[in-house]
Amino acid sequence: MTRPFIKLIDIHKRFGDNRVLNGVNLDIHKGKITTVIGKSGSGKSVVLKHIIGLLQPDSGRVLIEGTPLTQMDKKQRHGFRNQLSYMFQDNALFDFLTVRENIGLPLSEKRRIPAQQIERKIKNRLEMLGISGIENKYPSQLSGGMKKRVALARAL
Length: 156
Known about the structure:
Blueprint: E1 6-15, E2 18-28, H1 44-51, E3 59-64, E4 67-68, H2 74-81, H3 99-110, H4 115-128, H5 144-155
Antiparallel strand pairs: 1-2, 1-3, 3-4
Helix pairs in contact: 3-4, 3-5
């Protein structure tokens, strides 16, 4: 098999006396869907924060295409993060933006994509997730499940 895009090697993390990660190993390959599943408080979010560089392990290594995350310069880390999408536990939707604006935000913020192409992508994601027709609503007008779908549409 090919070298993993992201590799966690023996990751340990404590917060005070609370040991959250105890020797986590994980390989994530490009083009594959990887899901991190576990009970509440088992460290799923902590694993993801290590992958995107928001947390540093107490011991162990995070490799991105074979390069330790700690050895990447700011430009390399930024390029790596631009290849990722993730959903937050609480959806992290902006209440003052419509569904359309929430989904389109990463496209208009990070990339130079024409407005028509962004609109096509938004429409495609809404259709894909079965939520067409809500694009002009605000998060406060949606159910919890609909908010999850909007957050997923934005991540995709």
